[in-house]
Design a protein that fits this description.
Oligomer: single chain
Radius of gyration: 26 Å
Order of helices and strands: HHHH
Largest sheet: none
Number of strands: 0
Structural class: mainly alpha
Helix content: 55-70%
Number of domains: 2
Number of helices: 4
Strand content: under 5%
């Protein structure tokens, strides 16, 4: 639809307009609501499980406190900074290798997309190597994977 000046009219984003243009959206919405409803018993069971375990824990076991979450919070900030740094570095490295495009904006967009993918590749390879290094000396790391233990040792002293 055009307005008086011949420009496309901005349409209002509300549920009625969304359903009129794409009825499958209502199906996704209903599926999302149904998913949240059937998840309630699982949340309640999880809450009861944690409460039961806190009441019946061994005397020597201490549950993590809220202040113990500073390490993951600080790690998130550090890893996000590293992510931004590598995306910018890889952007500069990859820019000359991007094929010619119709515009500079498209070329920059492709270089940014490639740099994000390369950064993710480096991150996940590092995570796998670090995880392998951590698990290498564990009693449940089997000889087949380079360890000296056995799968059956994975549940010793479980859950405490």
């Amino acid at each position: 639809m055009l307005d008086k000046k011949g420009k496309p009219k901005e349409r209002e984003e509300n549920i009625a307009n969304i359903v009129k243009t794409n009825p499958i959206q209502i199906v996704f919405f209903l599926f999302g609501v149904a998913t949240m409803i059937w998840m309630v018993p699982f949340f309640i069971a999880c809450y009861n499980f944690v409460r039961y375990n806190m009441e019946h824990k061994p005397e020597t076991y201490e549950y993590p406190e809220f202040k113990d979450f500073w390490i993951p919070a600080a790690s998130s900030v550090v890893f996000y900074g590293i992510q931004l740094f590598f995306e910018r570095v890889f952007f500069q490295i990859l820019m000359p290798f991007i094929k010619p495009c119709k515009s500079d904006q498209e070329k920059e967009k492709r270089a940014m997309k490639a740099s994000k993918c390369l950064q993710k590749c480096v991150f996940y390879i590092g995570a796998v190597v670090w995880g392998f290094y951590i698990f290498l000396d564990q009693p449940f790391m089997p000889k087949l994977l380079g360890g000296s233990g056995d799968y059956n040792n994975g549940f010793n002293d479980f859950p405490y």
